[in-house]
Design goal:
By secondary structure, the chain is of the alpha/beta class. It has seven helices and seven strands; from the N terminus they run ααβαβαββαβααββ. β1, α3 and β2 form a beta-alpha-beta unit. α1 packs parallel to α4.
Length: about 210
């Protein structure tokens, strides 16, 4: 099996060139994210990949720090940031287990298509909760593979083989909506908005607040 950072480093170029699969669902997600972002917010995005979403949201916050486990992903994201003159974005190679951020540093923490790829989701959510200021938000979108009813669900059965040959990341957790929401709540957040984008694929969008 391929270690997480090595897998994403190897696939960074291909990932950067891949188009958004469902542009309508992506734009709907961004619209709902923007509705919750204070203009002066200090925000953190974990698992930022090559920075596409960071660049889309940069103008909606005061400062955005975006992190990823992959050094190559961050390199590509930095090239895109410089080309866009997005001076309020800071990019760092970091993980939730190894980062320089102090507790309660962020008004908003965001994680898009990230939680189901973490090998300890409960621990990840606890660390995210620690990083959010009291009254701040955690905004996420997570693939709930247990609820995929369409053709892509067939890929679930191929995951063990794909992992073995390095075509899929080592960790891909199969979740239901109820399981995901329950874990977010158990970490100390109150869910204030939730939906699915796209609805057919059951990709769960959640906005949750940390008690103030």
């Amino acid at each position: 099996m391929v270690a997480p950072a090595k897998f994403w480093d190897k696939n960074a170029e291909k990932y950067a060139k891949s188009p958004v699969r469902d542009e309508e669902a992506y734009e709907a997600t961004l619209a709902r994210v923007r509705a919750h972002l204070p203009a002066d917010a200090v925000a953190l995005e974990v698992g930022c990949g090559t920075g596409t979403t960071a660049l889309k949201l940069a103008g909606d916050v005061g400062r955005l720090i975006s992190t990823d486990i992959s050094a190559r992903m961050i390199e590509i994201a930095e090239e895109k940031r410089l080309a866009a003159n997005a001076d309020n974005i800071e990019l760092r190679q970091a993980t939730l287990e190894d980062h320089p951020f102090e507790a309660e540093s962020f008004d908003v923490v965001m994680a898009f298509n990230f939680l189901h790829l973490h090998d300890d989701m409960a621990a990840a959510l606890r660390e995210i909760h620690k990083l959010v200021k009291p009254g701040g938000l955690f905004i996420s979108k997570t693939i709930c593979l247990k609820e995929w009813k369409s053709f892509p669900a067939l890929m679930i059965h191929l995951l063990p083989l794909m992992k073995l040959v390095g075509k899929a990341p080592d960790v891909v957790t199969k979740l239901s909506t109820e399981e995901l929401d329950g874990m977010i709540t158990a970490a100390g957040f109150e869910i204030i908005e939730a939906d699915h984008y796209p609805k057919k694929a059951r990709n769960r969008f959640v906005v949750a607040r940390k008690a103030g």
